[in-house]
Amino acid sequence: MPEITYREAVAQAMREALDQDPRVFLMGEDIGPYGGAFAVTKGFWEEYGKRRIKDSPLSESAIVGAGVGAAMAGLRPIVELMTINFSLLAMDQIVNHAAKMRYMSGGQLSVPLMVRTVTGAGASVAATHSQSFEGWFASVPGLHVVVPSSPEDVLGLFRSCREMEDPVMFVEHILLYSSRGDAPDSDLKIPLGQAAVKRAGTDVTIVSYSRMVQTSLAAAELLYKEGIDAEVVDLRTLRPLDSETVIGSVKKTHRAVVVEEATGFGGFAGEISSQIQEAAFDYLDNPVRRVASAETPMPYSMPLEQLAIPNANSIAAAVRDLVNE
Amino acid sequence: MAATQTKELNKAKLLEFYRLMRLIREFERECERQYTRGNIKGFLHVYTGEEAIAVGAISALTDKDYVVTHYRDHGHALARGLDTDGVMAELFGKATGVSKGKGGSMHLFDTSKNFMGGYAIVGGQLPIAAGLALASQFNDENRVALCFMGDGALNEGEFHETMNLAAVWNLPVIFFCENNLYGMGAPSSDTLAVHRQMYKLADAYGMDNYRVDGNDVVAVHQLMMDVVDNVRAGKGPAFIEARTYRIQGHSIADPANYRPDEEVEYWRSQDPIPRFKDWMTGQGLAKEEEFSSIDSAVDQEVVNAAEFADASPFPGPEELLQGVYQ
Predict the structure, then answer these.
(1) Buried b (16+ CB within 10 A) or exposed e, B182-201
(2) What is the band of B7 on the pLDDT scale with cuts at 50, 70, 90?
(3) Which residues of A touch B133 (CB under 8 A)?
(4) How many of the other CB atoms lie within 10 Å of CB of B112?
(5) What ranges do the domains of chain B cover?
(6) Is 80 exceeded by the pLDDT of residue A2?
(7) Which residue from A134, B73, B76, B224 could staple onto B60, CB 3.0 to 4.6 Å apart?
(8) Catalytic residue list contains A60
(9) Interface confidence: ipTM more than 0.95
C-alpha cells in the first residue's frame, strides 16, 4: 500500500471535496498564495481560484460567522482557523451560533460548516500556541469534534464529515503533518462515532486520540517488552463518542489509562474515566488512571516543554504503576 | 417629508406601512400584558417607538433577500410578514411557535420568509449576515442581506471584523444601525467615541454610508430603496444609521429611570405612528375611518394571536432532545 503524509491526506480530502461538490469553498487566513500556515493548501489558490479559495483578513470571528451564514444558505464552507488557540477569537460564532442554530430555529436551519484547525503542543511555540481545546468543544451539544491520528483516519473521517448537516470541528495535530501512513482506498469512509482499536492487547486499555495515540502505541511497545500487553483505543471523534468500544475493551482488560495532551483538570480524560466507571465499575481491577499535560501554561524552553507533555515513557510508567498496584 | 417622495408610493403601500407599524405596536403592548400574566417568560425586549425602521426598511426588500437581526426582533419579524400567531406562540414557549418554542423572544426564525433569525449576542449576527451575502455572491443569486443592529453593537469586535470583511469582499449586505441612543442602560454618548455621527464609522472601511430619521417610515423606506438598488447592483456593502428611540426600557424589567424626563417627552412627540398618520391625513391621503378600520383589524389580529398562543400546547418531552443534530 502506498504511503502518504497526514498533510497530504488533509489536502487530498479537501481536493476531493472541491472537485466533487460545487457548494464547497475554503476560507481562511493565508490559505491562498501563501499556501496555508502548515502548507496544507499549497497550490490550491492557483488551481481553484479565488472564488473557492478565499484568503481572508485576520478576523477569526468574521470568517467562522461568515461560514455559518453561508452554510445556512446552503453552501458547504470549510473554514481554516490557523490554530485552535485562535479559535478563542471565534468562540461566539462556534459555540453561540453554529452549534445552536438548528435547535434554536426549531429545526429550520442547518449549519453544514467544517472548521479545520490545529491542536497540540511540542513545537516550541510557548503557552499561547500550544493548547489543546478540542475537549472544550466536545462539551458543546450541536458540534461534532473529530480528532484523527493518522493519514488514513484523516481521509476516512473527512469524507464522512462532508456528509454532516451540522457543524464539525476537524482538529488536526501540529506534530502529525509530516507523519506517514497507509494511503487508504479512495472509497474508505469512517463514520463519526466509531473508535478504533489500534493495538489489540489483554492487560490494560489505553484510551487516547490524535497524536497521543501514536505516543500510546510507542508506550505499548515499551510495555510489551516488559510483559504488559496493552490495548490502544483511538477515539477518533470526541463527539459523537464511541463509548461502547471503550467499555468493551475495558471489560476485557479490566484496567484503563486515559491519555490526553490537554491539561487534565476538568478535561476530556475525566469524561472517559467517568463513563468507564459508570458502565464497567465491576470489571475494573484498579481505579482508572489519567495521563495529561502538566497543570501549567506551556513553557517555551524545550526541556521544560518535553517534561510537561505526556510521552511514551510517562504513559508506560503510569500503566506499569497501575498494573503493579 | 417632502411631498415628492410620495409620488413613488401609492396609497395602498402607505396604508400597509401604517398597518404594520400599528400591528407591531399593539403586538408589543399585548406582550407586556401577557408577561405580567406570566404567559411570557425570560427576557422581553419590545420594539415600541422604533417601528418605522423595520417597516420602512424591510418593505424595500424582495422575498428572496435575507433579513438578520438582533434580540429586539419582534418588529422585524412582523414587518417581514411572519405569522402573528406563530410569533406570539413562540413567546409563550409553545410548540406552534415559529421556532417550535425553542428560541423564544430573542430567537425568531422563519426560513420560508428568509428571515434568518434574531440573535441575542450583541454583534453576533453581523458575520452571519456577511455569510448569507457571501452565499448570494458565490451563487450569483443577486440577493441582498439586510442586517439590523443596535448602536451598542458598534462597540463589539465583530462589528469591525465584519465591516472590513464585507468591504474587502464587496459583499451585498446592508448594515442597518438602529441608533436608539442607549446600549441597555448606558447612553451612547458615554460609550461610543463618534456617537453623534455613527454612520461615519463606515468611512473607515470605504463603505457607502447614510443617516436617516428613524422615526420617519417614508424616509427610511425611500433611502433603503436606493441603497438596496446600489447593493444589488454590486456596488458593495452599505451602512445606514437611523436615529430613533426606545420608548420603553431596555427590557420589561427596566423602568429606564436613567433617562431624563424631557428626553422621553421629546421622543414621545416624535412617535413614528401618529407622525405618519398626521402627515397622511394632512396630505389628504387617507381619512380617519381608514385608520380606525385598520386599528380594529390589527387589534383583533393580536387578540387572536394571544388566544392562539394560549390555546396551543407546550412542546412535549419528546421534543427535548430533537433537533440538536439532524
Answers:
(1) bbeeeebeeebeeeeebbeb
(2) very low
(3) 69
(4) 12
(5) 3-312
(6) yes
(7) B224
(8) yes
(9) yes
